[in-house]
Amino acid sequence: MDASLTLSLSHTNSETQDLIGSYFLDQWRLKSKSAAAKSESVAEPEKTQLMEVEESEDEKEELPTELDTLSSSGGFSIVGPDKLSVHYPNVNLHGHDVGVVQANRPAPCKRLVYYFEISVKNAGAKGQISIGFTSPGFKLRRQPGWDPNSYGYHGDDGLLYHGQGKGEAFGPTYSTGDTVGGGINYASQELFFTKNGTIVGTVFKDVKGPLFPTVAVHSQNEEVTINFGKDPFVFDIKAYEAQERTKQHSTIEKLSIPQNASYGIVRSYLQHYGYEDTLRMFDIESKSTLPPISFIQENGFTEDMNMYSLNQRKVLRQLIRSGEIGDAFTKLREWYPQIVQDGTSAICFLLHCQNFIELVRAGKLEEAVLYGRTEFEKFYKLGDYDDLVKDCAALLAYEQPQKSSVGYLLGDSQREVVADAVNAMILSTNPSVKDSKDCLHSCLERLLRQLNACFLEKRSLNGDQGEGFHLHRILNSGRKG
């Protein structure tokens, strides 16, 4: 072979290994950061539980928890010491003598729904209580809904006010003993209000910026308490969310997808990850309903490419998933020596780390120490791997490492990271592959990424409000159904 061609191929192979290796190292680092964050949150179990119930892992937002006493309307109302109650002690003399209080934070917006409630302890002289949402610059001596960028459902007349002093017919009045709620549906871009657990009406939300949960009192002895979610709501917000998700799923289910397309997507996933036995069974079961097809992705990654080295990829995945890293190394040296010829490559690092982890899993700590000293030194000196080397070494510092912040390394998911990295590296050795990035993900995963991008684009068009695409949520809702 020509020397220049050999040098070019070597350079290309190095670039491919760098790209694929870097990707899976970054995946590992994400797991490490997530595990460390979870470990730190153990000291705050109540806060952690609330966040887990209300928010997804990747979109945590600070929730309103109390009333903002620093920016209230002054002496026209008194906020209780708990910062969850408001009392109007005086006789109002003017229309602008309103006791208005916003929440300490705006309503979180990267979700499907936000909701809060007030309970009317005393309707006072006139029952001029209101609940609503207001913008950050709202004048805190005006009823919610009287000024632009605000909405208010008023108790004395049952009217909805939206940006002007004249209200519109909306719902029933409310008084002492009633519980009234206000919510934002980010999917439909509507605000909704409830009375005693029942929705009374909705209004289109035309404000794209943040909105603060807001309550106002305006006649002598009016008193309300606010619930931002610390206590159970009177309105069944979980059932409402489930209903809204059902509407979304119903819309999706009306879309017709050709059977051979869904078959091809599933089949390409099994091919991509080397699940040869499952693929064979899938083909057998599918013959009665659908003939095999040649599924071609838009990027030109054909079925033949997905079938490349299928049996060898299956064998290596099985070895890594069962913790037999030494045997996996042996097979790689025999079948794909170019992948492991650079002993300091990312793929070699992943394999050596997993071998160390397997020794710890087996309780062979002395052997793990010796192995780490031998293999990790060269990687630690490179600098690119030192954080991950420290994670591995930290397993030896705990009596019960599985319960530590690095305990995630002992789980099967870490084996999957290594197996996926090896699988992608083998696929990249196929001469027909034009772009090594195509080896990182299956067609199904690209589809899911596209769905996520569409959800995020929709959210962007709504002023960065609304939830993203969460596959686990959809799967869980399917199980419940």
Question: What's the short version?
Answer:
With 481 residues, this protein is α+β, with helices and mostly antiparallel strands.
Report on the structure:
This protein has helices at 3-41, 45-54, 237-253, 259-272, 276-286, 303-306, 310-321, 325-335, 337-340, 346-361, 365-382, 386-394, 412-427, 443-461, 471-480; strands spanning 78-79, 85-88, 99-102, 113-122, 130-134, 150-154, 159-161, 168-169, 179-185, 190-195, 198-204, 212-217, 222-227. The chain has 15 helices and 13 strands. Helix 1 runs antiparallel to helix 13, helix 4 (259-272) packs antiparallel against helix 5 (276-286) and helix 7 (310-321) runs antiparallel to helix 13 (412-427). It folds into 3 domains: 78-236, Sandwich (Jelly Rolls), CATH 2.60.120; 256-307; 309-440, no CATH class. The longest helix has 39 residues, at 3-41. It has a 7-stranded antiparallel sheet, with no helix packed on it. It has a 6-stranded antiparallel sheet with strand order 3-12-5-6-7-8, with no helix packed on it. Residues 1-12, 42-58 and 295-300 have low confidence and may be disordered. The chain has 481 residues and is an alpha+beta fold.
Keywords:
disordered N terminus; six-stranded antiparallel β-sheet; B30.2/SPRY_sf; alpha+beta; Ran-binding protein 10; Jelly Rolls; CRA_dom; LisH; 13 strands
In the CATH hierarchy, what is the architecture of the largest domain at level 2? Sandwich
Q: Rg from C-alpha positions?
A: 30 Å
- Principal-axis shape: elongated
Task: Give the proportion of residues in helices.
Answer: 40-55%
> Looking at CATH, which topology of the largest domain would you report?
Jelly Rolls
Strand order of the largest sheet: 1-2-13-4-9-10-11
Region (Disordered): 35-71
Domain B30.2/SPRY: 45-233
Domain CTLH: 309-367
Biased composition (Acidic residues): 52-65
